[in-house]
Amino acid sequence: MKTPVINAKGVCLTFETNDGPVQALKDVDLGIERGEFVSFIGPSGCGKTTFLRCIAGLEVPTGGTLTVNGLTPDEARKARSYGYVFQAAGLYPWRTIAGNIKLPLEIMGYSKADQEKRVEKVLGLVELDSFGKKFPWQLSGGMQQRASIARALAFDADILLMDEPFGALDEIVRDHLNEQLLALWARTQKTIGFVTHSIPEAVYLSTKIVVMSPRPGRIAEVIESTLPRERPLDIRESPEFIALAHRVREGLREGHDA
Amino acid sequence: MSLLKLLVVLAVWGGLWALNARLAARGHHIRAIRLAVPVIFGLTLVLLWEMVVRLFGVSSVILPAPSAIAQRFAAETPTLWIDFVQTMLKGALSGYVLGCGAAFVTAVLIDRSPFLQAGLLPVGNFVAALPIVGIAPILVMWFGFDWHSKAAVVVVMVFFPVLVNTVAGLQATTAMQRDLMHTYAASYWQGLVKLRLPAAMPFVFNGLKIATTLALIGAIVAEFFGSPTRGMGFRISTEVGRLGLDMVWAEITVAAIAGSVFYGAVSLIEKGVTFWHPSQRG
Amino acid sequence: MTKVVPVLTVIVALVLIWYAAAVGMNAQWARDQAARAETTLGFGELVVDTWSQDRPVLPAPHQVAQGLYDSVLAIKPTSKRSLVYHGWITLSATLAGFGIGTLAGIALAVGIVHSRAMDMSVMPWAIASQTIPILAIAPMIIVVLNSIGISGLLPKAIISAYLSFFPVVVGMVKGLRAPDAMQLDQMRTWSATNSQTFWRLRLPSSMPYLFASLKVAIAAALVGTIVAELPAGATRGLGARLLSGSYYGQTVQIWSALFAAAALAAALVVIVGLIERGVLKRMGMAQ
């Protein structure tokens, strides 16, 4: 069996704080295969964001091994292996939407013509075709977040890491963006790591749901989704969906009681 | 008799104030009225000033009437222009450009060293609060009476506010923005040029705006310690000595106009550069 | 604590640069003297000489320290050559002006916040006045007031009051408007009167803004007083010491007066800062 795209073995991370050491991650074992959509769900302090940041090389584990595309996370970062979407869109207000999407392309040294082509392509992917010349503050929150996803898609990275990207948006916008994200995933075949605290969101999007629990942050349960890859919004009323959501909720409760 | 005069003055004041109060109450959302109210207020003050000087026969060595100042202004335009060139263009502006430029470059240079920042920032903040005009006599001794010494005073005066603001601005990015650059594996210079310099601009311009007033003050006050026979500070101190107060007021008018235009010009550039900042979007 | 080492390093570096600059700038005179005496100076002698001249172009730090010691500690505070005496003259005018300017500034700010007509009439001028080098009128005010028989502390205090007035107005207006719409609506739901809203909401909210502008204002007031002491005839105060030093080429005197003024400014800003900390702490607003 070939090694997974993201491979974690016994990953630990301890922060030194003023109140003594805090164990943010303890013995995390996880393999993510190419093309999977993996959600991390759990209460705050369970280490889901920390683990995503470890994959991105933004935090360095204090124990265990973690590889991304067979490289260390830092090497993978330098090889620009992934796009990262933060909780807030974090677009630069002094750049237009197109200018923001060009930012990583400029840094990575893509040619001018290539930049233009890619901007146009990803703007289409997130359905913002006619908004390239607008400034971020002229757009709604949901559109800004779509632009930040486009920014993460613009360069050739086959991994997409998303840290509660829709957490700050209202329910209706969120549903719409979830649907779009699934379509995008189907079209681009990317491997996606997705942090959320919403059970329906995790169940609706994922092929694999990683339930985490706090103090110390660890994996409580890994649930393989039984849903088909093709998922209309109303799948959320199906018995299969409700059963999965129930399992996730049970997993969260057990992790909490433990 | 003088009671009657006083009543006239008060009546004019009351009448114009009532007009302003009504305008303000009725049309505070109308752009033209928002502009008109302060203008009427300013004109009222000038009118009252003129009336008081005339009605009470105030001596021109104490307070010249606005009309007298305007006459003097018109008659002495060539002299005022020479003084303006000497003090504003040669002294203040050259010192401003040099001082702000040096402060900006210094801020970028020490940006990579947290040690230097930790050391220079408190010292810079401390120096920015000091009465730096006091070094004017020393710099006049070193650089001579002409505009070079005035420019030197201005350089020292504007340096620290711009330095402190630029350093603060370069630290003004959020952790998320820096993480984003990190995920792109951006180099230090890419991070500086693409993220931290643009983000610093509102702070830099804050410093640049404070510095405009300081530059004019430095250039004028330094002339009190010695200057060639031209310049606004020189003219003010000699005309005060001769009790030519209308000329002093004319110079002050020039200083006020120059100060506002200078500040306005920097604000205009700021608007262009930091159009994206919430304070500019209005 | 972590800041002490870098700050000390920077200060030591500045002193070293100062010593080096003193050698460079005073070397010409030392060489001329030596040439006149038809001797040549070795490097060591040159350095010693440049650090101990009577009227150096740039006095060395220890000469300024000596000058400060002589005019602050080694002399009766009532003497005309004592910097304590001159400093007190400057300080008293500064404090008087600062007090007047602050009270007037707060009063105008209260008026502006409560009267739309005043707001629209006065506020643009208050803001515009901050871009104008007001200091330029200092000599005129001194001379005019002198000519109508007012001299001494009051003219200087008027100038420093004028300079501290505008920052306080602008800062205080901002502060009194700091409460947001929700807080003001909350007061309205309790049908609070205007004065209740003022004393219980607006005034407390304005304190951080007021103190921020007081720090600017007191520094401005000191500069105002010093510049007001410059016009011919003034013999008392730090400004007069600066001017007489520059007339007679007494560089050590200039530098001593300059450091005294700097120390005074620093002390005043620090005192305002301490009061700010105390007040905000009692109000539970300290960070």
UniProtKB/TrEMBL annotation, chain A:
Organism in which the protein naturally occurs: Aquimixticola soesokkakensis
Name the UniProt record assigns to this protein: Taurine import ATP-binding protein TauB
Family annotation (Pfam families): ABC_tran
Domain ABC transporter: 6-239
Keywords carried by this UniProt record: ATP-binding, Hydrolase, Nucleotide-binding, Transport
UniProt GO MF annotations: ATP binding; ATP hydrolysis activity
Gene3D superfamilies in the cross-refs: P-loop containing nucleotide triphosphate hydrolases
InterPro entries: AAA+_ATPase (IPR003593), ABC_transporter-like_ATP-bd (IPR003439), ABC_transporter-like_CS (IPR017871), ABC_transporter_ATP-bind (IPR050166), P-loop_NTPase (IPR027417)
TM stretches of this protein: none
PANTHER family for this protein: ALIPHATIC SULFONATES IMPORT ATP-BINDING PROTEIN SSUB, TAURINE IMPORT ATP-BINDING PROTEIN-RELATED
Top EC class, one word: hydrolase
Family: Belongs to the ABC transporter superfamily.
Coiled-coil residues: none
EC number, UniProt record: 3.6.3.36
Signal peptide coordinates: none
Automatic annotation (TrEMBL), chain B:
Principal place of residence: membrane
Subcellular location: Cell membrane
Signal peptide (from-to): none
Topology relative to the membrane: Multi-pass membrane protein
Membrane-crossing segments per the record: 6-23, 35-57, 93-111, 123-145, 151-172, 203-227, 247-269
Cited InterPro entries: MetI-like, MetI-like_sf
Annotated Gene Ontology cellular component terms: plasma membrane
Any GO BP: transmembrane transport
Record's keyword annotation contains Protease: no
Manganese recorded as keyword: no
Residue ranges occupied by any ABC transmembrane type-1 domain in the UniProt entry: 98-273
Keywords tagged on the record: Cell membrane, Membrane, Transmembrane, Transmembrane helix, Transport
Name the UniProt record assigns to this protein: Putative aliphatic sulfonates transport permease protein SsuC
Lineage of origin: Bacteria, Pseudomonadati, Pseudomonadota, Alphaproteobacteria, Rhodobacterales
Encoding gene per record: ssuC_7
From TrEMBL, chain C:
Primary site of residence: membrane
Transmembrane segments: 88-113, 125-145, 157-176, 209-234, 254-275
One cellular-component annotation, GO: plasma membrane
Topology with respect to the bilayer: Multi-pass membrane protein
Gene Ontology BP, a term: transmembrane transport
InterPro entries per the UniProt record, alphabetical: MetI-like (IPR000515), MetI-like_sf (IPR035906)
Taxonomy, superkingdom: Bacteria
The entry's keywords: Cell membrane, Membrane, Transmembrane, Transmembrane helix, Transport
Localization terms from the record: Cell membrane
ABC transmembrane type-1 domain sequence ranges: 83-276
Pfam families: BPD_transp_1
Family: Belongs to the binding-protein-dependent transport system permease family.
PANTHER family with a match to the protein in the record: ABC TRANSPORTER PERMEASE PROTEIN HI_0355-RELATED, ALKANE SULFONATE ABC TRANSPORTER-RELATED, MEMBRANE SUBUNIT
Protein name per the record: Putative aliphatic sulfonates transport permease protein SsuC
